[in-house]
Amino acid sequence: MRKNYNNSRRKLFLPEYGRHIHEMVDTLLEIEDRKERNRQARAVIAVMGNLFPMLRDTADFAHKLWDHLFIMSDFRLDVDSPYPRPSREELTVTPRRMSYSQGRITYKHYGKYVERMIRSLSDTEASPEGVSQTIDNLARYMRTKSYEYNQEHPNNEVILKDIRRMSNGEIEINEEAINNLRSNYRQDLPARQQKGRQQNGGAQKNHAQQKNRNGFQQRSFQKNNRPHTPTK
Predict the structure, then answer these.
(1) Which of 97, 139, 156, 229 is most buried, with most CB under 10 Å away?
(2) SS3 (DSSP) at 199
(3) Is 201 in contact with 160 (CB distance < 8 Å)?
(4) What are phi and psi of 205, to 5 degrees?
């Protein structure tokens, strides 16, 4: 007896509809009467819609069903569709190749956008006050990111040197204003770490209290190296 396995059958164009729907579409191709073929095609569309009732209220649901009908027929079905008939070329358009930047980041702990902003300031003709304010904000941000990366307080001279290198020395920097900047180096811990730290602190506190209480209970009150006896 010949076995009829799926691996010996033809490949399904849309596996989510199943092999029975594909066989219905193959039957449509064999109908010669165009009127009967249109009627049977609408019946197949109704069956396809019943497979996904949760999508009936979505936009262009019927349009998608007709497109899927032509796809499953390998674009060979000739019926009157209420929507424009899709073509193989429209559905197999090669996507445009994305252009990825291959530039290397000089200072990775600052990020690429800091370097781009500094270069844009050197290329554009902006007011000195606006450039100075932007450099101050960038310097504060750079100090914060440097602290996150190195886990130590950064030096303002290093920040100034990095700004000069990224701008190729084309930006005038107000060193006094940058030296007077103050950043909050204290990093807020996540809620889970804060909870763990609080639990550890509470456990240590309870352990110390229990230790003091045990020591108090074990003390023996003596006077002149003699046990204390209560007076009557």
Answers:
(1) 139
(2) helix
(3) no
(4) -65, -45
Cα gap 81→87, rounded to integer Å: 13
Report whether 178 contacts 159 (CB < 8 A).
yes
Token look-up 């886990």 returns 151
Give the C-alpha separation, 202 to 126, whole Å: 55
Count other Cβ atoms within 10 Å, centred on residue 31: 16
Tell me the per-residue pLDDT of 117-161, one tens digit each, with 9 for 90 and over. 888 887 667 677 777 888 888 888 888 888 888 887 777 788 888
The distance in angstroms from the start CA to the end CA of the chain is 112
Q: Which amino acid is at 194?
A: Q
Residues 6+ apart with CB under 8 A from 168: 122
The alpha carbon of 92 is separated from its chain's Cα centroid by a whole number of angstroms, namely 29
CA–CA separation, 140 and 149 (whole Å): 14
Residue count (the chain): 232
Task: Go through 141-170 and write b for each residue having 16 or more CB atoms within 10 A of its CB, e for each that does not.
Answer: bbbebbbeeeeeebeeeebbebbeebbeee
82-100 per-position pLDDT tens digit: 999 988 888 877 888 887 7
- What six digits make up the tokens of 52? 């996904």
Helix (H) or strand (E) holding 223: strand 222-223
Could you tell me the CA-to-CA distances from 154 to 74, 107, 146, 149, 162 in Å, in that order? 65, 14, 6, 10, 12
**CA gap 117, 166 in Å, rounded:** 10
